[in-house]
Amino acid sequence: MTDQQPSPFERGTDGPKVIVAGVDGSESSLRAAAYAGGLARRQNALLAIVYVQPLMSTGAALGAPVADTTEEIAEGLAEEIRTSAERVRGIWDVRWEFHTLRGDPYNGLVTAADDLKADAVVVGASESAGHRFIGSVAVRLVKAGRWPVTVVP
């Protein structure tokens, strides 16, 4: 027998301990967050809800104040999640955190999942027709092959 030291971090050995849910305000992302919340509750895992604020859009290129708008979206999402959590407190308890980052959604979710040592990532199916050509965030996360990824319609 060899004397091996256990690794300081091991993913997925006793079920997920951290589940990352990507939200962007779309209906599918909110369904994904609800689904991830159910998983987190059943597994007694931490639910990390992540909103990635876009850095630049066509509106920004034309001079529209995007930073204020994305910050308002982040604050609105956080408030909506807090309100929902309060409504079901005592019936449906789950540990959760809200994180917001700036950047593109794929890289933001990868960064959050890595930083939080996520065991699973849950995202909503893309509602954009353009993703048929360039690939959705969900497809890119699956192809990365770093975590189990659940895509919620």
* Distance N to C terminus: 48 Å
Order of helices and strands: EHEHHEHEHHE
**Strand-pairing-aware structural class:** alpha/beta
What name does the CATH topology carry? Rossmann fold
**Would you identify the CATH H-level superfamily?**
HUPs
The CATH architecture can be named as: 3-Layer(aba) Sandwich
- How many discrete structural domains? 1
How would you sum up the global shape? globular
Strand content: 15-25%
Low-confidence stretches: none
Please give the oligomerization state of what you see.
single chain
Q: What is the CATH class designation?
A: Alpha Beta
Q: What is the number of helices?
A: 6
The overall average pLDDT, rounded, is 79
Tags for this model:
single chain; 153 residues; alpha/beta; Rossmann fold; 5-stranded parallel β-sheet; 6 helices; 5 strands; 43% helix; Universal_stress_UspA; Universal stress protein UspA; UspA
Describe this protein's structure.
The protein has one domain: Rossmann fold. The protein has helices at residues 27-43, 58-61, 66-87, 105-115, 131-134, 137-144, and strands spanning 18-23, 46-53, 96-102, 120-124, 149-152. Helices cover 43% and strands 20% of the residues. The model has no long low-confidence stretch (mean pLDDT 79).
